[in-house]
């Protein structure tokens, strides 16, 4: 199969504000993948209600996130980009696959263990069964490849097991997906503590650059970013603050590490931090402007997600029927 024919599926939850980490780690890659694969992307809003959401805020956030992804270059003319809850096949196959997922398997999911600690007052069945729904998302579209971060690897592994199990019982039904490891893309760390991932929930506001931060705020955050006790701009691969900044700069500008080291030869950390801040500002400000345009023209947004919804339904209803028939449901 040529790369162009391969299907890539990925989704993100509309669970909070996006950060530079989300952008460089995932969204920017999605944008680039669109030219080389058949891409299907979703906002996984069904997953998000495993944690209680305020209805108004939730509704608004889904729309905003949809607009932001368009602003980042996700193009519904090239790819399918839909809202999960608008495509009924997900909940339906999700239920079916729960019946092919073992209690023991779900109990071993580290994200479930973490989240049930964090939300001890609401350990609901959805939180527990969530990986079966994620498997449904992927398997409905016969995805060959799934770009996932480290935190989702275990869920993808479970998806593969569920697919194998189903295929073993009923014969070839699902494509068993492979993880897609991005060629480029940085794991962006906190600007204040490079041993931690950049996170929107960090108590230290300077640790995290948000997609919607204005230029001054971005510059200030990079100015205050921690570095290390050296002084040369050199990548040491030790997970220091300067390594993190070089990673960010490289990812944003497309420059190689050696080109960056050369560019800043003889210059100090101050100059470098300013350059990183400027590069990030130049990348994010146009996205913010496009985002505002889309939010002022919600007709266009609605048109995009309706079109993608139809496309997603067409593919996934076919797969769901095949599954139901194999199980023995009367169609
Ligand atoms: N569970 C993922 C997350 O929380 C989002 C997600 C839902 C997803 N379905 C998916 C990711 C399918 C990849 C493929 O980040």
Element layout with pairings:
Blueprint: E1 7-12, H1 20-33, E2 38-43, H2 45-48, H3 55-71, E3 80-83, H4 89-98, H5 103-107, H6 110-118, H7 125-139, E4 145-147, H8 153-170, E5 178-180, H9 215-223, H10 241-253, H11 257-263, H12 269-295, H13 298-327
Parallel strand pairs: 1-2, 2-3, 4-5
Helix pairs in contact: 3-12, 4-7, 4-13, 7-8, 9-12, 10-12
The structure holds tryptophan (TRP).
Tryptophan binds next to strand 1 and helix 7.
Report low-confidence residues grouped into runs of 5 or more.
none
Level-1 CATH class name of the largest domain: Alpha Beta
Give the DSSP E fraction (strand runs of 2 or more residues). Answer: 5-15%
Structural class computed from helices and strand pairing: mainly alpha
Descriptive overview:
It is a single chain. The chain folds into two domains: 3-185 and 298-327, Rossmann fold (3-Layer(aba) Sandwich); 205-292, Orthogonal Bundle (Tyrosyl-Transfer RNA Synthetase), CATH 1.10.240. The chain is built from 13 helices and five strands. It has helices at 20-33, 45-48, 55-71, 89-98, 103-107, 110-118, 125-139, 153-170, 215-223, 241-253, 257-263, 269-295, 298-327; strands at 7-12, 38-43, 80-83, 145-147, 178-180. The strands form two sheets. The chain has a three-stranded parallel beta sheet with strand order 1-2-3. Strand 1, helix 1 and strand 2 (38-43) form a beta-alpha-beta unit. The protein is globular. Bound molecules: tryptophan. Residues 9-13, 44, 47, 134, 137-138, 146, 148, 152 line the site of tryptophan (TRP). Residues 9-13, 44, 47, 134, 137-138, 146, 148, 152 line the site of tryptophan.
């Amino acid at each position: 199969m040529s790369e162009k024919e391969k299907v890539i599926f990925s989704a993100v939850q509309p669970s909070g504000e996006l950060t530079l980490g989300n952008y460089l780690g995932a969204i920017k890659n999605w944008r680039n993948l669109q030219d080389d694969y058949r891409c299907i992307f979703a906002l996984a809003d069904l997953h998000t209600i495993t944690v209680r959401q305020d209805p108004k805020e939730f509704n608004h956030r889904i729309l905003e996130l949809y607009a932001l992804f368009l602003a980042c270059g996700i193009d519904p003319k090239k790819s399918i980009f839909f809202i999960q809850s608008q495509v009924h096949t997900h909940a339906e196959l999700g239920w079916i696959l729960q019946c092919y997922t073992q209690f023991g398997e779900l109990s071993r999911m580290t994200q479930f263990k973490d989240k049930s600690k964090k939300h001890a007052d609401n350990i609901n069945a959805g939180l527990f069964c969530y990986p079966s729904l994620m498997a449904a998302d992927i398997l409905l579209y016969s995805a060959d490849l799934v770009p996932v971060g480290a935190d989702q690897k275990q869920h993808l592994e479970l998806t593969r097991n569920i697919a194998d199990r189903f295929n073993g019982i009923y014969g070839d039904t699902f494509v068993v997906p492979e993880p897609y490891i991005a060629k480029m893309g940085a794991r962006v760390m906190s600007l204040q503590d490079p041993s931690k991932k950049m996170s929107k929930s960090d108590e230290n506001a300077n640790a995290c650059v948000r997609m919607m931060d204005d230029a001054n705020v971005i510059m200030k955050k990079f100015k205050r970013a921690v570095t290390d006790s050296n002084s040369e701009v050199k990548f040491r691969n030790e997970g220091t603050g300067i390594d993190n900044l070089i990673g960010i700069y490289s990812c944003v500008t497309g420059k190689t590490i050696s080109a960056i080291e050369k560019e800043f030869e003889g210059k100090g950390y101050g100059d470098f931090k300013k350059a990183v801040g400027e590069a990030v500002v130049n990348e994010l400000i146009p996205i913010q402007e496009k985002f505002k345009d889309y939010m002022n023209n919600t007709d266009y947004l609605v048109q995009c997600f309706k079109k993608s919804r139809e496309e997603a339904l067409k593919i996934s209803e076919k797969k769901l029927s095949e599954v139901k028939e194999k199980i023995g449901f009367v169609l």
